[in-house]
Amino acid sequence: MQNKPGSSVGQLSPSSRVLMGPGPSDVHPRVLQAMSTPLLGHLDPEFVTLMNETQEMLRSVFLTEPADVANQCHGFSGHGSVRCQSH
């Protein structure tokens, strides 16, 4: 039987398992929680704030300075990333 557009099928909720194969593996609950939060667009001011915080953390990991090209984050759509690679 096919579902009509807009009809509700129900929530998929498989039971917990320990995944031991080479494919999809167990995901930490914090990751699942983070993935369930609303998405931010790349032009959203809150996204820019998060991106700047991430960049600061990356600088501490890679011991780079703000002017280092190797540690620059940019916020743009997929087309922008392709254009960035070509320059």
Overview of the molecule:
The protein is mostly helical. It has a domain at 40-85. It is built from three helices and no strands.
Q: Main traits of this protein?
A:
38% helix, mainly alpha, 87 residues, single chain
Encode the helix/strand succession as letters: HHH
Class of secondary structure makeup: mainly alpha
Task: Note the overall shape.
Answer: extended
Q: From the alpha-carbon coordinates, what is the Rg to the nearest angstrom? A: 20 Å
- Low-confidence parts, pLDDT < 50 over ≥5 residues? none
The count of strands amounts to 0
| Number of helices in the DSSP assignment | 3
What percent of the residues sit in helical stretches (DSSP H or I)?
25-40%
Short summary of the structure?
This protein has 87 residues and is mostly helical.
Topology of helices and strands:
Layout: H1 29-35, H2 45-62, H3 78-85
